[in-house]
Write a structure and sequence with these properties.
Elements lengths: L3 H6 L1 H10 L6 H37 L5 H33 L19 E6 L12 H8 L2 E2 H8 L5 E2 L1 H21 L3 E2 L5 E2 L1 H6 L11 E2 L5 E2 L4 H5 L5 E4 L5 E10 L18 E11 L4 H19 L3 E5 L11 E9 L4 E10 L3 H6 L1 E4 L6 E3 L1 E9 H11 L7 E2 L13 E2 L4
Parallel strand pairs: 4-9, 8-14
Antiparallel strand pairs: 1-11, 2-3, 5-7, 6-7, 9-10, 10-16, 11-12, 12-13, 13-16, 14-15, 17-18
Helix pairs in contact: 3-4, 5-12, 7-12
Length: 425
Amino acid sequence: MHDLKTIRDDPQRFDAGLRRRGMAVQSAEILALDLARRAAQTRLQELQAKRNEVSKQVGAAKAKGQDAADQMAEVARLRSAMEEVEAEEKALAEKLDRLLAAIPNLPGDDVPEGADSDDNKEIRRQGNPRNFPFAPKQHFEIGEQLGQMDFDAASKLSGARFVVLKHNLARMERALAAFMLDIHTREFGYTEILPPYLVRDAAVYGTGQLPKFAEDLFHTEEGFWLIPTSEVPLTNLVADSIVDEDKLPLRFTAHTPCFRSEAGAAGKDTRGMIRQHQFSKVELVSIAHPDRSGEEHERMTSCAEEVLKRLGLSYRVVTLSTGDMGFAAQKTYDIEVWLPGQQAYREISSCSNCGEFQARRMKARMRKSGEKGTRFVHTLNGSGLAIGRTMIAVLENYQQADGTVALPDVLVPYMGGVKVIEPHA
């Protein structure tokens, strides 16, 4: 959510941020609504003051035994006028809120300007892609030949964009999650959380999925939303609260399923596990001091990178352009892992600094010890990592000519000593 005072003080800067996002300017419409709403509030205050004055006259007249019919009629008229102005002010406020709620966060000054992913800026690479003495296969070819990745069974159960994992691939899902959680909790100081997978409107509004992206989510008849990522419940742990400054940063991690409708994804990644309606992810969330969120963003990204380093996977880090960032993001780093089967780098983590954008929607603030005033916290989120895409990367990068898959050494203890995944009947 955007601060109206900031827009009033510098509408040109606000519009410049929208232009960088590839959007039309909106400050004039916002300020016109704001002016009309404040004018209605002023009229309401004037009517209230007048009604109080006339009500006193009614009381005085009655105390003297005088006829107060005219004053009482005026009080009734003023009350009716107040109700009309109250309805007008409420309608203007709701229209203004709807408009502001649909406007994305403004990009940071250091975010590269561009229309889409073609304008993202690569900032570093780690590792060299492996040279195979054979033509590397894609993950779904490997998984199906192993007899442990079944898209047909999933289709019968649920339709397209689902998968059934079996035997050691099912075990690898669990192993990867445990491996990631151990790193983030034991070494990087994140607190492990097991959050609800169903949340109310306020939670998805707070992180920016509602109202604009309702079609991307799954909704139950009882009014709950299935979480598209555990960013939603983790970030909302500080909603409607004031955190002591000395407790910041708060760092949370969770392994949860994620549910997305993939609206608008028709024709994209239709084969395999790249883009599914249900997948699991280890998420990282930080609630940071507003003066130090930039440092926290770099730290979070390095934590996600460390998982890939230990798995021996090649990757690159890119800064997303203004046209490729998510709705709530102020700045985003994407970590893209090398997939030899596709001969391409594919996103495996997005780490975003949202500034105070989500905190304003959630009313999440911090207070310095001994002071009365508060400031909005800054919120950050990132994948640490997406489990399915990490499995894809392991399968493709560690595949062998005979169709088996050698496992990275760090994963073997989590797989009960299994070093090679072989075909399973």
